[in-house]
Design goal:
The chain is α+β, with helices and mostly antiparallel strands. The protein has 3 helices and 5 strands; from the N terminus they run αααβββββ.
Length: about 110
């Protein structure tokens, strides 16, 4: 005998009502983002820009390098293998990450001396 006011609920729908509910979905992530310190991009001297340019010309696909670059309000350091160097678009691919030449602040690695 079923209740005519509240028909019997199937198992799937019944289980959904007991699933956890996060009323503040995304709130923790937003707080973490807000707490992240924003850094201003450093202006490189002409001498430093020329030095980085020489290093970029010495790098070849397959070289293992460490690049420091500016991304999303912070400086990031990543070590990995160069998968692509696009001199026309001025972009260096360091494994899965695209790094614009203009974002670079340092390059180190086992590439030919500059």
């Amino acid at each position: 005998m079923g209740n005519k006011v509240h028909p019997k609920m199937d198992r799937e729908n019944r289980a959904k009502q007991f699933m956890p509910f996060d009323a503040l979905k995304g709130f923790r992530e937003a707080l973490a983002e807000k707490e992240r310190e924003i850094t201003e991009k450093r202006e490189l001297s002409e001498e430093r820009k020329a030095e980085l340019d020489l290093r970029l010309h010495a790098i070849q696909k397959g070289d293992r390098i460490t690049a420091e670059y500016f991304r999303d309000g912070a400086y990031v350091t990543q070590t990995g293998y160069v998968t692509k160097i696009d001199k026309m678009c001025r972009v260096l691919n360091l494994e899965e990450q695209e790094v614009p030449f203009d974002a670079l602040s340092d390059l180190r690695g086992d590439f030919q001396s500059y």
